[in-house]
């Protein structure tokens, strides 16, 4: 169940940016995203502080003067939460907490908090708890955590509530237990996905809020949860994609092979590494896919950077070499047609759609079909005369053109790719 918070926490956002330091360079666009994240978590953002400076302050991240300014503002305006775009080191956090008398979180804490309230299945809950504990362990001694039972709200859910007074050893034990449990869940998943091995598998990947779930619904009537919030989806849902769609006046190509399509968790810039690690089993669907649809929110002015983030995250999870179709979504929001043709020349293998309005979906399906039949060549197999089961297997995995019943055998001619052919060859 989603937690409903009665009163929104009055929140201030802080971002330090340094043009000379790649790790700490943040454009003002990052603040827009941080605001969206904070609001997704249920915060009311009342002010943002953006500081661009070439001198990095080891004690406070932002300069001492700026920290005092934030502190004074927080006092005057009864602010209960300050969120930093930058990842805070333990000493910076401690120094800031001495100056600013309210809860202080960084972006990773915030993302973990959103994951904690959006986790629905047992697996997602285990994964989030593990990531939270791994993140909390080296940062255990923060001052406000002693008060967090009374304070409640953003950043205090999950292990924060129950484990504050317990020592590192207890957390360490819990981490091992969670890892064991996840391993079991993963084993079950492997058995299930073993059964799916013979299907053509597609995964929807992309930046959070790009429209992945909306596209799954449009393609399959899946009825999955769609929301204008970040990280609405944390679990993988897999549906069958029907491609044998007849179009007026056109020859209908039959796709006997079953196609599965999965929606999964979105990515974001600086997604905490602990989260990626613990979500590996959810993300393994992506790794095992034959084709990725990279859904891009083309209405977001920041989409080129988002594309990079997604590509880098795919590389991090080991899905770098997958075949990808770039699906530029929300193109109903674009008014400039020349912009689309410019993008088409810049991004190869792309298609412009609106998942919500159902625009240009056929063009996307055509691209999928092309991938599906890529490498299909004609082949022949000879089976035993009574081996009808294997014949039906060939029908499942290939486009059969001829079946000849000979005296002691059946000769089947069909079109399929190398992967399916070697599988069929093995079972025959
Ligand atoms: N204008 C427009 N809005 C869209 C389109 N597709 C999706 N949206 C909206 O974008 C928001 C996010 O859609 P989702 O499908 O939940 O996005 P997602 O990629 O699954 O997001 P997460 O699961 O949170 O990572 C929702 O408010 C959708 O209604 C589109 O083609 N056009
Ligand atoms: Mg979604």
Task: Please give a structural write-up.
- This protein has 428 residues and is an alpha/beta fold.
- The chain folds into three domains: 9-163, Rossmann fold (3-Layer(aba) Sandwich); 196-373, Rossmann fold; 377-427.
- It is built from 16 helices and 13 strands.
- It has helices spanning 28-40, 64-76, 90-99, 107-118, 122-136, 148-151, 159-163, 168-195, 212-220, 273-278, 280-287, 303-317, 337-346, 361-373, 388-397, 418-427, and strands at residues 9-17, 43-52, 81-84, 103-106, 200-206, 237-241, 259-263, 291-297, 323-329, 350-352, 377-384, 399-405, 409-416.
- A six-stranded mixed beta sheet has the order 6-7-5-8-9-10, with helices on both faces. A four-stranded parallel beta sheet has the order 2-1-3-4, sandwiched between helices.
- α1 (28-40) links the parallel β1 (9-17) and β2.
- α1 (28-40) runs parallel beside α4, α4 (107-118) packs antiparallel against α5 (122-136) and α5 (122-136) packs antiparallel against α8 (168-195).
- It is elongated and about 90 Å long.
- Guanosine-5'-triphosphate binds next to α9.
What CATH architecture of the largest domain would you give?
A: 3-Layer(aba) Sandwich
Low-confidence stretches at least 5 residues in length (pLDDT < 50)?
A: 142-150
From the spread of the alpha carbons, the general shape counts as: elongated
Give helix and strand order, one letter per element, not per position: EHEHEHEHHHHHEHEEHHEHEHEHEHEEH
Summarize the amount of helix as a percent range.
Answer: 40-55%
Fraction of residues in β-strands: 15-25%
Measured between the Cα atoms of the first and last residue, the distance is 50 Å
Q: Remind me, CATH topology of the largest domain? A: Rossmann fold
